[in-house]
Amino acid sequence: MTLKTFHERLDSLFELRTNLRAAAIDLFSQEFSYSTGYFATILNGCLFAPSLLTFWFVNGLIDFSTAITIGAVATPAGLQIRLLAYVLLIPTFFLVRVSIHLLHPTHRQQILGGSCPNARLLSLDWFSMGILATGLPLALQDFGPWLGMNTAYLLGLFVLPRPLSARRGKFVKLTAIVLGVALFLYAKYGQAMTVLPQPQLVLGPVATFALGDGATEWLLRLVNSLLFGPLLVGMFGVFLNHVLTRPELTEIPLLHHTLPRRDPDSVVVASAALGTTFYLLVVTAATGRVVMVP
């Protein structure tokens, strides 16, 4: 082999490597450009997005800390099952979302064509609600603090600000939020604060009124039954979807950043019901017991 032939072959190898590198870069740049290509459709589009992981982590911290504070989790075993369900939440939501889109003829054609359907069929926010909403009867057993807090919210957020100016109305709303939270915490946990007077002496029935054990147990079985639980949680989600997105709340500074956006009722019901069903199936798998009817 002459030196000239060697250089020609070496140049051809360099040219081949350069062409392959350019082709690979072009392929990946096309495949991962926004909303084009199968990988982009899955990872950054209608089926799944990395932002879901951020929501999952932040929402989990807020939801579980709130649930423990209000008493929606009664035992360590119950907390463990809910944590297990929350760990499985993202892959389950992903599979359900993929299945729904791929079962829809038009959506399936769009996805296989490398683009995202312009449709919002499920919401992770409402899907995750079923994990903790099924424990609300435990929190509501001490009904007095809830009654006091929501009375403060009703008056301070929806009634009293109406005749006031916008500036004074916002001040009244912020005061009502702080007062409602303080009232709830004092009525529920004030007995442990020896420096403060006993809540029942100050608040009366707000601190003492409670549901009976029988009523609480029946409500808990009702919400955690496969036949009624998903429907009840779905209806509760629709109620929250309309209340939390009212202008009286969304106009409050800072608070509107923490509120959900209003979704179609069909999305809320479907997401909350499917999420509740998923949680109840996790409970069945973990405990070996299933409750069909209360």
Radius of gyration: 27 Å
Q: How many separate structural domains?
A: 3
Share in β-strands = under 5%
Kindly state the percentage of residues in helix: over 70%
Assign the structural class, choosing from mainly alpha, mainly beta, alpha/beta, alpha+beta, or little secondary structure: mainly alpha
The helix count comes to 17
The ordered H/E elements are HHHHHHHHHHHHHHHHH
Low-confidence stretches: 26-45
The outline comes out as extended
Distance between the termini: 88 Å
- Can you count the beta strands? 0
Largest sheet: none
Query: Overall mean pLDDT score?
Result: 77
Keywords: Membrane, Transmembrane, Transmembrane helix
Transmembrane segments: 38-59, 79-100, 121-140, 146-164, 171-189, 226-245, 266-286
Describe the structure.
Keywords: Membrane, Transmembrane, Transmembrane helix. The protein has helices at 3-31, 38-43, 51-70, 76-87, 89-103, 105-112, 124-127, 129-133, 136-139, 143-159, 166-189, 199-203, 205-208, 213-223, 229-243, 247-250, 265-287. The chain is mainly α and 294 residues long. It has three domains: 3-31; 51-141 and 211-294, no CATH class; 144-195, no CATH class. Helix 4 (76-87) crosses helix 17, helix 10 (143-159) packs antiparallel against helix 11 (166-189) and helix 15 (229-243) packs across helix 17 (265-287). The chain is extended.
